[in-house]
Amino acid sequence: MDTRSKILRFLREFIAENGFPPTVREIASHLGFRSTKAVKVHLDIMAGEGLIRKVPGRARGIEPVERGLPVLGSVPAGRPVLRYENVEDWFDPFIWKDCFLLRVEGDSMIGAGIMDGDLVVVSPDTASEPGEIVVARVEGEVTVKRLIKKEGEYLLKPENPDYQVIEGPFELVGRVVGVLRRFS
């Protein structure tokens, strides 16, 4: 979890527990920083990105901007839950701010739970490890597959036995860090 995500989580938890936001010094202490300067830099960046609101002239004037989706907890099927009762956590889609989405076409990755029509969230980080699901460019076309290493050679493996492993030259475009699916 990056520093800004830690700050957001701490802000939410502190406010939920105390009813008011923490000071910059309390944030620094929680993160293990000796100085408040680094926290102030992060807070300025977060305010610029719209993740927090800084209320001028007010002590403890740091408020998270709730732009995520609330994770209300788990529930057995059929049990009614009020919309914002007992918010357990907030899902912050902005953790993927440097990422992009690609719509999946085909069924070569169904074994990994990636279906035709899904959107994969792709981090442009090309330093992927064997076992990770990646997006790669093969002969000018992009594909989503699992990166594997066999006998010292990197290969692209589909997660459907109806498809063949892709050998040969390819270029990594990014690493799949999430999947979005809409039920309709």
Query: Which fold name is given in CATH as the topology of the largest domain?
Result: Umud Fragment, subunit A
| Secondary structure: helix percent | 10-25%
Sketch the topology as an H/E string, one letter per element: HHHEEEEEEEEEE
Tell me the strand order in the biggest sheet: 5-6-10-7-8-9
Care to describe what's here?
- With 184 residues, this protein is an alpha+beta fold.
- Helix content is 20%, strand content 28%.
- The longest helix has 16 residues.
- The chain is elongated.
Structural topology:
Elements: H1 3-18, H2 24-31, H3 37-48, E1 52-54, E2 62-64, E3 69-71, E4 89-91, E5 100-103, E6 119-123, E7 133-138, E8 141-150, E9 153-157, E10 171-180
Antiparallel strand pairs: 1-2, 3-4, 5-6, 6-10, 7-8, 7-10, 8-9
List the defining traits of the structure above.
184 residues, Arc Repressor Mutant, subunit A, Umud Fragment, subunit A, 2 domains, 3 helices, 20% helix, elongated
Brief summary:
With 184 residues, the chain is an alpha+beta fold. It has 3 helices and 10 strands, in the order αααββββββββββ.
